# Entry
Amino acid sequence: MSNPKVTLAALQRMKQDGRKIVGVIVYDHQMAQIADRAGVDIVSVGDSVGVNFWGHQSESEVTLDQMLLVCRAVRRGVSRALVSCDVPVGALQEGDDAAARAATRLLQEGGADLVKIDASAASAGVVRAVVHAGIPVWAQFGAERAEPMTDPLVREAKRLEEAGASLLDFRHSGPVAGPEAVRAVRIPVIGGLGGGPWLDGRVRSIVAAIGYLASAMDDATERYANVAATALTAIQALCDDVRAGRQIRGAPAARRS
# Structure
């Protein structure tokens, strides 16, 4: 029997029951299929695709049309997990109506189940406008390290919940502000960088977790795998086979006439 499809209500029950929520950031159809099969709860289509896959200098360079393209690819690879898609910073900065229109397109055309909004680039009014349009919001906040300013961050978590957010992504929560925010709101609080087991769950970029980026070939960061180093070795072996006149692996066998 297959696992049931994840819903926002299911995530809420997980928070109440103390079961951790797993979110991953994915940019392509193939990895989306793998993450969904692995059993993650949320597949997040991040605007970090611009920096990590396309060589952009900043996430702010990513357009709505580009996010739609990536969101559709990921959606086609996911059948069980919730699919979230980032509303581009440009749309957030254009005001409430523009953000709501962008979020609507990400659901209707991109196939997302909910959208992520960076609260540092938008007002609470943007969150309200998107929620008012009938679109669930995963609100991200806490871009700086939290220890010196626990109270303002807990107030921010409450403010975003009151604005209608269904989930929070508390970045850089730390072990002090993180648990305080989890206790202060009824909605799940998930965290990426600077998060920890004190939150309701974690979200991690797959390319970082499994060493998919080219930079992983030469660093010593502890990961769940080092796909880049494996790929380097494999491609070097391919080069060796071609240059030595050997048949390459995975190619159809040559037919004799």
